[in-house]
Design a protein that fits this description.
By secondary structure, this protein is an alpha/beta fold. It has helices at about 35-45, 60-65, 75-85, 115-120, 145-160, 180-190, 210-215, 225-230, 255-270, 280-290, 315, 340-345, 365-375, 425-435, 450-455, and strands spanning about 100-105, 130-135, 170-175, 200-205, 245-250, 295, 350, 380-385, 390-395, 400-405, 410-415, 420-425, 460-465, 475-480, 485-490, 495-505, 510, 540. It has a 6-stranded mixed beta sheet with strand order 3-2-1-4-7-5, sandwiched between helices. One of its GO terms (molecular function) is GTP binding.
């Protein structure tokens, strides 16, 4: 932590615009800390504590500008208490809130979804629940209609969670990062919920809630002036970035506004990529590199900004040859604020702290390791054909042993492209792990022998599967709740005996049926002399744009 704390200064009563924690300079290890020097310079001006509005705490600053995460003395239960207290507030406007539950599709079955009734409590039922499956842009299409199958998996997860107290309104698939499905989500919210009450974004850590909050803030779902008056939430791969409630006011979707919005969407749907501006094409190409599914999120209602008046001061321009030019002092740029009438009856969209996942490998990793483990770009599947007696390492975080079987089987790794995969034999596997667990071959964890001394050992779990065909996986072996798994494909009726390893204290899940059953077909030719196939990356798809005809 840079800068010194000052325990004598009382808290400000002003929230950090990035994570929602109350700003203070009392304790460097507590949420919302601002170094005492900076805190005084902001709060001792003519506006007093109001000078802190729009400021961010040191943690958000380090995350946003340096990609570094500061450890906080904050128990995981604190996030749950903040969310539960917010949901149990008395209903505003005579109606309970709509819950917008953000679910990471890579993490199915979602570990936090069954906890939702406990967060609500028995006496505070929500008016509705809309489940959003996020990060679909990271997964390749393994067959036609794969999105329909993913949507069905999300709906099944809701049914298995035994949700009660909030009727399920809909299930949507989106990418908060690339914008895919976001215009459809906004239209669904405005059609079904309109402006009936508040909306709460809920979900586990790293599900993409804050990214979705920022995207909705720059969409037709918020009031036209909100992007200028509300700061964006801090977004980071580090779990638990948001620490308190953030919010923006929801626009009232009147008939006129809905009509104008539909006209804009119709007009944009007639465009091709070639008709976009060079700046829009560059942005679109960048998104295509990040995800398989891309969508453009536009705005129909934008606040017109006045042209600034330039003050002309002839005295500033007149100076002798012996003098340096004089510069007029820059005027302080006033921060836009909502008026009382704009928000007195407003319905708000709240971003809440993510619920910390138990038994997740991310809780064991350093900040550099988290960046390698969490998938942030389109996942390119890596397929290997293994015989009995062979072993697959996914970094030093997971291991799958093929113990018994009559024929070779295919193991497709769906994980961050930065994580290495190493194939070995059963007789050499233990020696390889002991020698390379802290080195470049297996990469994560990193930090040498001292790091491995504190890292928990891998513990085994035996798995028996029966193949259903050479093109369709029978199950996913989901490793440690970090968006990583190995899909197993085997000959029909072929019995496989496997042993999978994950770090002690983390959860291993066998997912049947698999999320992408035909993932092993997304591959190139076999690499001679190895167990690996060449990788193949499917093309990206852009929604809301007309496909140009090729001559």
């Amino acid at each position: 932590v840079a800068g010194r704390p000052d325990p004598s200064v009382p808290p400000s009563g002003v929230s950090c615009s990035g994570c929602g924690a109350e700003l203070h300079c009392r304790d460097g290890a507590a949420p919302g800390f601002v170094p005492a020097e900076k805190y005084r310079s902001l709060s001792e001006g003519p506006g007093g504590a109001a000078g802190l509005r729009g400021a961010v705490c040191q943690r958000c600053w380090m995350l946003a500008h340096h990609g570094r995460a500061l450890r906080l003395e904050l128990p995981p239960e604190q996030h749950r208490l903040v969310v539960s207290a917010a949901l149990r507030r008395p209903p505003r406007h005579g109606r309970g809130p709509l819950l917008l539950y953000i679910l990471d599709v890579l993490e199915l079955p979602d570990p936090v979804l069954p906890q939702l009734p406990g967060l609500l409590g028995p006496d505070t039922p929500a008016a509705g629940l809309l489940v959003v499956g996020n990060k679909v842009d990271l997964l390749p299409a393994d067959s036609p209609g794969h999105l329909g199958r993913l949507r069905q998996r999300v709906a099944e997860a809701c049914a298995q969670a035994g949700l009660r107290g909030a009727p399920l309104v809909d299930v949507r698939l989106v990418s908060a990062k690339t914008g895919f499905g976001l215009e459809g989500l906004v239209s669904r919210l405005q059609r079904s919920w309109r402006c009936a009450g508040d909306v709460y974004l809920l979900g586990a850590t790293n599900s993409g809630k804050s990214t979705l909050f920022n995207t909705l803030l720059r969409s037709d779902y918020c009031k036209s002036r909100a992007p200028d008056a509300v700061d964006r939430a801090t977004v980071s791969p580090w779990p638990g970035t948001t620490l308190n409630l953030l919010k923006f006011p929801i626009i009232n979707p009147t008939c006129d506004r809905i009509f104008r919005r539909q006209e804009r969407l119709k007009e944009e749907a007639t465009k091709t990529e070639d008709q976009l501006s060079s700046e829009e094409q560059m942005y679109l190409n960048r998104l295509k590199k990040q995800g398989y599914l891309v969508g453009e999120v536009g705005r129909t209602f934008q606040q017109r900004k006045c042209t600034p008046v330039v003050d002309f001061d002839p005295d500033v321009l007149s100076y002798s040859i012996d003098e340096d030019p004089r510069h007029s002092p820059r005027k302080h740029e006033e921060r836009e604020e909502f008026t009382y009438n704009e928000v007195k009856d407003a319905r708000w969209c709240f971003d809440t702290p993510g619920i910390v996942k138990e038994n997740c490998v991310l809780n064991l990793l350093t900040e550099k390791e988290v960046k390698l483990v969490l998938p942030t770009y389109a996942i390119v599947p890596r397929t290997f054909i293994l015989k009995p007696g062979m072993v697959l390492f996914l970094a030093a975080l997971g291991r799958v042993d093929y113990l018994q079987g009559e024929k070779p089987a295919w193991f497709s790794v769906v994980a961050s492209n930065l994580l290495p995969v190493h194939i070995s034999t059963l007789s050499n596997a233990d020696a390889i792990y002991k020698k390379h667990a802290d080195r470049e071959l297996l990469k994560v964890p990193m930090g040498g022998e001292e790091r491995m001394k504190e890292f928990p050992p891998l513990v085994p779990q035996d798995i028996t599967l029966k193949g259903i065909g050479t093109t369709e996986a029978v199950a996913d072996i989901k490793l440690s709740s970090a968006g990583s798994w190995v899909a197993v494909t085997a000959h029909a009726e072929e019995k496989l005996v496997l042993r999978a390893y994950t770090p002690k204290g983390t959860a291993l899940v066998v997912r049947e049926p698999p999320l992408l059953p035909y993932i092993s077909t997304i591959r190139g030719a076999r690499i001679a002399g190895t167990a690996a196939y060449r990788t193949k990356k499917p093309p990206s798809v852009v929604e809301n744009l007309k496909t140009a005809r090729r001559r």
